[in-house]
């Protein structure tokens, strides 16, 4: 995973925030997360097969853990922490995330390289195959 820095342009009309380095060619789905307050944490959501791009409006702390075994994960996995505000974060498949807004009214736009029905179908097939081993 890696961060991708963005920028902004300000003039008399307001501010345009941008990130011209992101490549969304593989993105198939997007959603927006807005926590009800800064005391809310969304943890731990796993991305077994999906890659994701996180783009913040406001400030978020995103913690990531590389999952060693999705069925029986270790408890001592290394936690990596990222603050995103004006930059973006690309997260490879195989991680779980914890998302925490550090400012009120922050929004996190998430892009995924799988449609939701695809994810559910693939995960069900993986689980079915694992049961037959």
Structural write-up:
The chain is mainly beta and 133 residues long. The protein has a single domain (26-131), classed as Jelly Rolls, CATH 2.60.120.10. Helices cover 12% and strands 47% of the residues. The chain has one helix spanning 116-131, and strands spanning 2-5, 7-11, 14-18, 29-33, 41-47, 52-57, 60-66, 79-84, 87-91, 95-101, 107-112. The strands form 3 sheets. The protein has a 5-stranded antiparallel beta sheet, with no helix packed on it. It has a 4-stranded antiparallel beta sheet with strand order 5-10-7-8, with no helix packed on it. Strand 2 and strand 3 form a beta hairpin. The longest helix is centred in the C-terminal third of the chain and has 16 residues, at 116-131.
How would the blueprint of this fold be written?
Layout: E1 2-5, E2 7-11, E3 14-18, E4 29-33, E5 41-47, E6 52-57, E7 60-66, E8 79-84, E9 87-91, E10 95-101, E11 107-112, H1 116-131
Antiparallel strand pairs: 1-9, 2-3, 4-11, 5-10, 6-9, 6-11, 7-8, 7-10
Radius of gyration: 16 Å
The CATH topology corresponds to: Jelly Rolls
CATH top level class name = Mainly Beta
The DSSP helix count reads: 1
Structural class, judged by helices and strands? mainly beta
How many individual β-strands?
Answer: 11
Q: What kind of sheet is the major sheet?
A: 5 strands, antiparallel
């Amino acid at each position: 995973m890696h961060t991708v820095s963005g920028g902004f342009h300000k003039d008399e009309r307001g501010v345009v925030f941008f990130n011209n380095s992101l490549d969304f060619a593989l993105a198939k789905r997007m959603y927006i997360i807005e926590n009800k307050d800064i005391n809310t944490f969304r943890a731990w959501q796993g991305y077994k097969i999906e890659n994701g791009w996180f783009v913040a409006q406001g400030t978020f702390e995103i913690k990531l853990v590389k999952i060693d075994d999705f069925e029986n994960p270790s408890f001592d996995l290394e936690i990596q922490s990222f603050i995103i505000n004006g930059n973006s974060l690309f997260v490879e498949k195989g991680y779980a995330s914890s998302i925490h807004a550090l400012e009120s009214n922050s929004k996190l736009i998430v892009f995924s390289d799988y449609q939701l029905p695809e994810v559910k179908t693939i995960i069900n097939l993986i689980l079915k195959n694992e049961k037959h081993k």
